[in-house]
């Protein structure tokens, strides 16, 4: 009976904290602003900036109780896309070089400002890639590949901001 009482006390003590099951901690925060990530990569894909920005907003909405706002936010995400490239990953034939696999790489620079707990603020670069085998044209695969890499990047950024493990 005593163990049950202790568990109940712990449950109610911790239930006041804003910690979700995915490990995200937004203690004291209610709002966040995600500014548009400009595409400053040498190779520019027209929709990458908006797709990346919206993907980050969606991840925050889906995994926290934070509201996205423009006015007086508790946290601010800003930055830019610094790199976008598609390069050969493997050569399949020494005599007649042909790319057997390719790599799509996206790099972003992110500045996160936590106005509630400034010690959690950071500015750093993130880079992720996906290796793929070209089937058809790159244009037919590019949007799906970008979505996959963007999902990896937004997860890394989200974890850096909210999952201080």
Automatic annotation (TrEMBL):
It comes from Pedobacter hiemivivus. InterPro entries: LPS_assembly_LptE (IPR007485). GO terms for biological process: Gram-negative-bacterium-type cell outer membrane assembly. GO terms for cellular component: outer membrane. Keywords: Signal. This is LptE family protein. It comes from the Bacteria. Residues 1-23 form the signal peptide.
